[in-house]
Amino acid sequence: MSNPNPVSGSPDKEPATEAELALTGKADRGATMTSPKQSAPGPRPTLGRLFLDNLWAANTVTVTVLALVLAMLVGAVLIIVSDPDVLATYGYITARPTDALNASWTVVSEAYANLFKGAVFDPEASGFTAALSPISETLTYTAPLVFTGLSVALAFRGGLFNIGAQGQATMGVILAAVAGFALPLPPVVHLVVALIAGAAGGAVWGFVPGILKARTGAHEVINTIMLNYVAVYFLSWIIVQNGVQNPDRADAISRPVDSSAALPRLLGDNLRVHAGILLAVLATWAIAWLLNRSTLGFELRAVGANPDAARTAGISVTKTYVLVMVIAGMLAGLGGSQMVLGSTANALTPLVIAQIGFDGILVALLGRVKPWGVLLAALLFGALQAGGNRMQSYSGISLELVTVLQALIVIFIAAPALVKAIFQLRAARAARLQTSLAKGW
Amino acid sequence: MEPGEIHALLGENGAGKSTLMNVLYGLYQPDGGEILVDGKPLRLKGPSDAIRAGIGMVHQHFMLVPVFTVAENIMLGAEQVRGGIVGFLDRRRARREVAEVSARYNLRVDPDAVIEDLPVGIQQRVEIVKALTRDVDLLILDEPTAVLTPQETEELLTVMRSLKAAGKSIVFITHKLGEVKAIADRITVIRRGRTVGTASPEASRDELAALMVGRDVRLTVDKQPATPGRPILEVAGLVVDDDRQVRAVDGVDLTVRAGEVLGVAGVQGNGQTELIEAIMGLRPTLAGTVTLDGEPIHGWSTKKVLRAGVGYVPEDRSVDGLVKEFSVAENLVLDIYDRPPFGRGLALRPEAIAASAKERIEQFDVRTPSADAAVGTLSGGNQQKVIVARELSRPLKLFIAAQPTRGVDVGSIEFIHSRVVRERDVGTAVMVVSSELDEVIGLADRIAVMYRGRIIGIVGPDTPREEIGLLMAGITPDAPAPAPADGAATPGEATGGTAGGATPAPERPGNEDEA
Amino acid sequence: MSTTAVPDVAVAAVDEGFWTRPRKVGAVLLALGVLATVLFGALATGQQARFTLSETEGGAALEIQGTLGAILFGVVAAGAGGALLAGVPKRWFTLVLGVGLVAFVLSFLCWQVSAAPEGRNFMPMVNIVRGTFVLALPLIFGALAGVLCERSGVVNVAIEGQLLMGAFSGALFGSLSGNVWVGLVAAAVGGAFISLLLAVFAIRYLVDQVVMGVVLNLLAVGVTGFLYERLMQTDADKYNSAPRFGNWEIPLLKDIPLLGPALFRGNIFLYLGLLLVLVIHLALFRTRWGLRTRSVGEHPTAADTLGVKVLSLRYRNVLLAGVVAGIGGASYTLALYSFTKNMIGGKGFIALAALIFGRWSPTGALLAALFFGFADQLATYLGAIGSSIPNQFLAMLPYLATILAVAGLVGRVRAPAADGKPYVKG
């Protein structure tokens, strides 16, 4: 893959496809117009058709919503086929179809209702804390995803595919945690130092593939994947070292981070939302500024879009690659730091950062590799996580469904042509139906 | 085409020769017209149809898999297999076939050599063998000598003669007069996508050159005589390799003075690109010096060269000149974004960029819906104006423009030319590199003709274009009309030019079909 | 995925003068050898280091006094390094390098085994060899899946997902049908399903292949994890109790010392894996299909001008890759364990590493997979004898080795030229 711009199918290209989408929409309309039998309603397209066209042409939000809907449909199928009781009703669907449909509807709607209640608002909740709890949970899960999402998105804009956000976050969480329990520092300073340590850990882990890419041309995709695993093993090694491992525990868990290094909670001790989300917004703003309003961002975007032209204009491509990876690593490291400095955990465990690095890739793609888009995408993913927790405990639907939904959303986003194909399939079939009807008539 | 005939298709770069032949080979679909083979119209859906119809083609950029052996490349697509459905390759038979064809047409190739280890001339021979093993009657050779040394060219001509003797027909696409005269039975000259004449090889060089470059369109540029000042750019003994580590610039000396336009003419791929890239710090110089206003600049980074007061319009604007995804305004500051007033410290100042963009768009008559439109949505001419505007909007000592009007509409051409002249008139040294002879003649105060990595001659703009055309073909006036068999190179040039193993650079990928 | 440098990178590959690549490698090897001689020699004990040709302490064994062995093999490694440094004929390079590296490892083992507590200072070679193959098996299947895809120009980062889906559907349908063969077919189909998605999106919709691979991995983790929790955890008897292939002993061959018990008393997957390496190697380099596959991965335009159908060949090979990886996944669930969530646990990525380390060739991938399997097995063994070397660092070895390989420090690896580039005609 010597293509200097590895994201040939990246969301950056999507505007074009959407334009295409709009075009095909029109072409489709043209086709129906030329159908002679159909000219009865007049050559003017119907209002609904016009609306649909505009919707298509509209923007990325439409595609995202459609992708979400499609993903949830597939998810519903999975819920149904994995529920033996509901499946049983399909055994006699010809005899009593309502049974099957009712059972399916019940299980799916209940699951998705719980997803919503866990993520946004529960109408039955009483009291301030209970009412705010879903939002608080959503924001808690959102914060680190914003950072890893920004990390991946920034690298994308610079023409690099950072699959290593997971490893960078891992190094970040290690250094942040060690700084958090090993250094005796006063409250605010301690937190700042721990965050800086986390950022530095990620930066180092980003620097390595960056410099290798710049110096030897070694592909960053391979190296970041490999470094992810190196980081995982490093984490599992360091946890059990003396001075790191919790002396009161036999299993692989580190000493807890001092409260002086913890991110303060925003809405009292009963709600988990913490200052990380504020940092996330700040980081989004900072990256947006960096990308669009700074000379560095200019270089980065130029290199990402056309390294040849950038080089001809005197921009150092190699320097930019290294810098991009260092900043991306810093962001992922900060995201990782929140996993111990925030409210989800306060000590290192082998699974402390969960999947935030890999989820960051999805978040970046979903957010169209734009900073504020990443923030919104992270919010959606955070909501799915939070809702998924409730869905798991209330409906017994595994949290893994959330992973499925997330992956599906991005798959549908990644190929607008596919979404188009799916939705046009219907239009085409309808058209065929009309013509066949017309013939019979 | 008749059997056993060598038909030369002569024309300048971009005249439409390659496109025509790609249609013949089924790679492109014709928009109109038809192809007759043995009197029957032929519809080619793809290369396999062409092969079946007995048409073989040797592409300008070889269609060989670099890591395969010669035999593997020749087998591919027409494999001889054993073992039924499993399809084991019958390498022995393939080797024998290669040996047979090699022997029959005197084309020595080692079937077990790996392509990427072979010199270009041998690779081409492999391509020819590949076509011959497929029993073609008509062989299309697209600019076959563009990448060959004189000796290799000589060998190729011999091969072509023996193929002709074996009854094969050959279409020979080229822009080199000497070769045409040496080998062709019939000559068709193409210009701007049309046949402008047929000639026999007895026609004089001057006639052919006139047909090829055409006299009818002579671009005129209004300009006063130059008043050259002190030397600004001095290049001495410059040696540069191309991307494949083949010598592309082989000891170039030239000087550009303040207030004059030096035009560099030459068939593309004779080292012009590498010369400029070396001056700009985009390509390492192996030997020689480059000085700008007395200061040696070779070895400098591109940024430093640009900062020192050099403006540069690269020859391939979509690859090197513009970031298509960027807005017009952003492209207008692509190499000065970090300079005041556009950038201060780490911060960009969008207001300043926007204000300057507005000004430039007006000054340079860039037709764009807005300064924020992506530059890729603009027409070629307007894209080029963006680059010219960018480069001319800072104080310059030297302005280098490579192919400044390639793929640009007539109106924009005039505009760009007038700006170039205006830049000269304010005392900037200007260097214009173009494969459009008209452009060079129209703009330049002095014309340097480049051939095989060297400056073969420097002439005034009043020199007859035929004479320049001959220089471009490597024929110097003092050693005219070489023996036909000598191909393109004069004896003196051949010895001088190849002593250092000079082979001209291949044309850059992406330029091949710019018809 | 290639290692082509970006345009303005000063390519460091210019080996000028004395410091050619073999010499640099030789210098490194010499340093390693000296290190082994001094460090391992000093740390090794006077105990015997026994390498038994069985699964226990008994039986025939090769033994050597610990310190002596560590020093001796260290000197051999250093000597090999010195030879490379002095300059050896090119065709001997690999051989000398191999000898040097093996000697280094042996020196290390002499130290480790001799330093083990009394009574445990032996290394059962049968266990080690068998463990190496068992651990390498999913890597072999995965890397072969990678070979099939990438040789035809489609980057396969989805190996992990293909293995996982294969393991899952093998377990599910094996359990439902109660028949291992049904399970095996289902596993192949499962892997091919992920491949199909990859192929359609990469070839038809031109989605970036790496992006697609990453997303497909997550999809596979999600789908299998979800169904695992919903079905297999609630009713393991019905959904997660697939029958298993037994071990097949091969007459005669099973009695070869060391290799017999390690290799020829294995299950179908072991034989299938080794057979596939051979078959794919032959097919790739000896048949029409292979020639065309490689041409499509290297220079699709050239292939197209000669009438090779580029896209359909890519579709077929990507699907085939899914089948191979799916069967590889089944080597877990239809032979060793019942399905658990995310049970592949990154093996797909080590398989990717093996593919790259093995330079995109089936035999190279086999050797790389065995090397990685050996590192893995060694980590387990050293854990068992209470070694001072943390096993996490041994586990890192495959990944670090791959980084070094890609960076061109251990020979230059070159991917198929058109790997990852969608082919658009015209």
UniProtKB/TrEMBL annotation, chain A:
InterPro entries on file:
ABC_transp_permease
Compartments where found: Cell membrane
Name the source's superkingdom: Bacteria
The record describes its membrane topology as: Multi-pass membrane protein
Q: Where is the major localization of this protein?
A: membrane
**Molecular function terms, GO-annotated:** transmembrane transporter activity
Q: Where is this region: Disordered?
A: 1-45
Q: Does the keyword Cytoplasm apply?
A: no
One short Pfam name that applies is BPD_transp_2
UniProtKB keywords: Cell membrane, Membrane, Transmembrane, Transmembrane helix
PANTHER family under this entry? Answer: ABC TRANSPORTER, PERMEASE PROTEIN (PTHR47089), GUANOSINE ABC TRANSPORTER PERMEASE PROTEIN NUPP (PTHR47089:SF1)
- Mind telling me what this protein is named? ABC transporter permease
Automatic annotation (TrEMBL), chain C:
- Record's GO cellular component terms: plasma membrane
Segments spanning the bilayer are 25-44, 64-85, 92-116, 128-147, 154-174, 180-203, 210-228, 268-285, 318-337, 349-372, 393-413
Question: What keywords were assigned to this record?
Answer: Cell membrane, Membrane, Transmembrane, Transmembrane helix
Per the UniProt record, one Pfam family is BPD_transp_2
- Subcellular localization(s) per the UniProt record: Cell membrane
Q: What InterPro entries does the annotation carry?
A: ABC_transp_permease
Where mainly located? membrane
How is this protein positioned relative to the membrane?
A: Multi-pass membrane protein
MF annotations from Gene Ontology:
transmembrane transporter activity
PANTHER family with a match to the protein in the record: GUANOSINE ABC TRANSPORTER PERMEASE PROTEIN NUPQ, SUGAR ABC TRANSPORTER INTEGRAL MEMBRANE PROTEIN-RELATED
* Designated name of the protein: ABC transporter permease
